[in-house]
Amino acid sequence: MSLTKADLVDYVARQADLTRKAAKDAVDAVFKGVADTLKKGDKAVITGFGTFSVRKRAPRTGRNPQTGQAIKITARKTPGFTAGKTLKRSVR
C-alpha cells in the first residue's frame, strides 16, 4: 500500500485536529515551499526527515530502444532526496 496525497491530507487533519480543507492547504504549502526552494537551486532541509536537493546529471549517450541508434541525452537537473538519520532509524 502506498500513501497518496489525499491519504496524507486525511492523516494531517486527524493528527492536528484540522478541517480537511485546512490540512490540504497546509500540505500544499509544504510541497510548494520545497518546490520553490529547489527551483532556486537551494536545499530544503527538514530536520529529522531528510534533505531535498537539486542534482545535476551530466550529458550522455543513450540508445533508441526501437532502432538501436545512438542519441545524445542533454545535461539536466533532477530533484533528489537523502533520508535523515531519524527517518532511517524508524524504517529499520
Describe this structure in words.
This protein is an alpha+beta fold and 92 residues long. The protein has two domains: 1-40, no CATH class; 43-92, HU Protein, Chain A. It is 41% helix and 29% strand. The chain has three helices and five strands. The strands form two sheets. A three-stranded antiparallel β-sheet has the order 1-2-5. β3 and β4 (70-73) form a beta hairpin. α1 (5-15) crosses α2. The longest helix has 20 residues, at 20-39. The chain is elongated and about 55 Å long. The two termini are 18 Å apart. The model has no long low-confidence stretch (mean pLDDT 95).
List the helices and strands and how they pair.
Blueprint: H1 5-15, H2 20-39, E1 44-46, E2 50-57, E3 60-63, E4 70-73, E5 76-83, H3 85-91
Antiparallel strand pairs: 1-2, 2-5, 3-4
Termini, distance in Å? Answer: 18 Å
CATH topology descriptor of the largest domain: HU Protein, Chain A
User: What percent strand?
Assistant: 25-35%
**Largest sheet report:** 3 strands, antiparallel
Number of strands: 5
Shape estimate:
elongated
The residue fraction in helices comes out at 40-55%
Number of helices: 3
- The CATH level-2 architecture of the largest domain is identified as Irregular
Any idea of the CATH class of the largest domain?
Few Secondary Structures
The SSE string, one letter per element, is: HHEEEEEH
Radius of gyration: 18 Å
> How would you state the average pLDDT, rounded?
95
In the sheet with the most strands, the strands line up as 1-2-5
Task: Supply the CATH superfamily name of the largest domain.
Answer: IHF-like DNA-binding proteins
Determine the structural class based on helices, strands and strand pairing. Answer: alpha+beta
Number of domains: 2
Uncertain spans, ≥5 residues at pLDDT below 50?
A: none
